[in-house]
Write a structure and sequence with these properties.
Elements lengths: L20 E5 L2 E5 L5 E6 L9 H5 L12 E5 L5 H9 L4 E6 L2 H10 L9 E5 L2 H8 L10 E4 L14 H10 L5 E8 L4 H12 L4 E3 L7 E8 L4 E3 H15 L3 H18 L7 E3 L1
Parallel strand pairs: 4-5, 4-7, 5-6, 7-8
Antiparallel strand pairs: 1-2, 2-3, 8-10, 9-10, 11-12
GO biological process, one term: polyamine biosynthetic process
InterPro entries: SAM-dependent_MTases_sf
Protein name: Spermidine synthase
């Protein structure tokens, strides 16, 4: 979800369906929950491409990790991440959790969401309960990537934002190496408490992507062995990601390295910047 406005089979959900409305402008179809807040979008003629910049940034983990066996997406919205991953990552399975049956129906009817198949499963369930249950019991499930974009019609911050939720996400990630990706509002009162809880749950192993114009900040939190990526390696990887998947990865890498360089200078370290998480 973005604060930008337009002139323009599991457990039942805990909230009723939101009032769902659509709008279109400049070749893009937008999803709203009865307000000006944008809950998702799709290029009408290019549904597999991502129309919103922060949503594209939620693929920023490709700068440091290869596509995993399975991805978990918490919050469907207009299905942009689901469509992109289903189309562009053919060896990766996708689980999607969405609390609103209405959102699922609209995504299928108006936003080109693929039907469930051997790789894709859309679960009508509460995200917090799903994640808490996934890592419990003898049949615990693990994902290499979890992408969380969980906002309601009021847009007062993520609807799942407790320390327990972020710890459950960590427990549901592959212990050999995984990443939680969270969309936050960088200029909102909810940001400080969420970034603090994510840092605590992941023992400080957190990267913040550069803020987008609308104010969203995508946060990456890591499990597994420590990662140290040199400036040269990150730049080369970004070029490869941009060529293969047509994502603006080189701009992301430059921004991350600029941030790493500022932190190094503040520590009195003049060596080439690197990402360490």
């Amino acid at each position: 979800m973005s604060p930008a406005s337009l002139p323009r089979k599991a457990r039942p959900p805990v909230l009723p369906d939101p009032p769902i409305t659509l709008s279109e402008e400049n070749g893009i179809r937008y999803l709203h929950f009865g307000s000006e807040w944008v809950q998702g979008a799709m290029w009408i003629r290019r549904p597999w491409d991502i129309a919103i910049d922060y949503v594209a940034q939620m693929m920023g983990w490709l700068l440091v990790l290869d596509p995993p066996a399975r991805i978990l997406q918490l919050g469907l919205g207009a299905g942009a991440l689901t469509r992109w991953c289903w189309r562009r990552l053919p060896d990766t399975g996708i689980d999607v959790v969405e609390a609103s049956a209405g959102v699922i129906r609209v995504a299928r009817a108006q936003f080109a969401l693929p039907a469930d198949d051997a790789r894709l499963a859309v679960h009508h369930a509460d995200a917090a309960r799903f994640v808490a249950g996934a890592s419990a019991g003898h049949e615990a499930r693990r994902w290499g990537v979890i992408q969380a974009d969980l906002y309601d019609a009021q847009a007062r911050g993520p609807v799942c934002d407790s320390l327990a939720f972020y710890r459950d996400c960590r427990a549901a990630l592959d212990p050999a190496g995984g990443v939680l990706v969270v969309n936050l509002f960088g200029e909102h009162a909810s940001y400080a408490k969420n970034i603090a809880r994510i840092r605590r749950a992941f023992e400080g192993r957190v990267l913040e992507m550069p803020p987008v114009r609308a104010g969203n900040v995508v946060v990456l939190a890591f499990t597994g062995p420590p990662l140290t990526v040199s400036a040269g390696a990150l730049t080369a990887r970004a070029v490869a990601v941009e060529r293969r998947w047509r994502l603006p990865a080189t701009a992301w890498a430059r921004a991350l390295l600029d941030g790493a360089g500022r932190r190094s200078s503040g520590d009195g370290n003049d060596t080439a910047p690197a990402l360490v998480v």
